[in-house]
Please model this.
Amino acid sequence: MEQDIEESAGEAGAGEDLAAVTTGIVGLFREYYGRGPTRAKTYLLDDRYVVCVLRNTMTTVERTLAPSDPDLVIRVRLTFQEAMADSFIGVVQQTLGRRVLTYHSQMTLEPDLGFEFFLLDER
Model:
């Protein structure tokens, strides 16, 4: 499936930076999961909150296991996301030039969505 990367300029002039955040996050998924989400979009809210919404993120293994053990799929994914936190934070800090104070990852199985949340320091 072709990658559809979008951007959202929640603040004036932020569109290119947000598209770069999206590209970086999708790149990490491709590198570490063997595939990236089919769609992704990053938002900047109140100049402090970065939210990356990812669609169709599950691997073949996760899609196979999800109907019989959804909690296992979520637990494994979120454990791995925690292990990868520094890489995800690094993409945002390097791209936006601001420190990330905290990061949280979440996913849903139906629909298949991933959410990467970042809280930036104040300017």
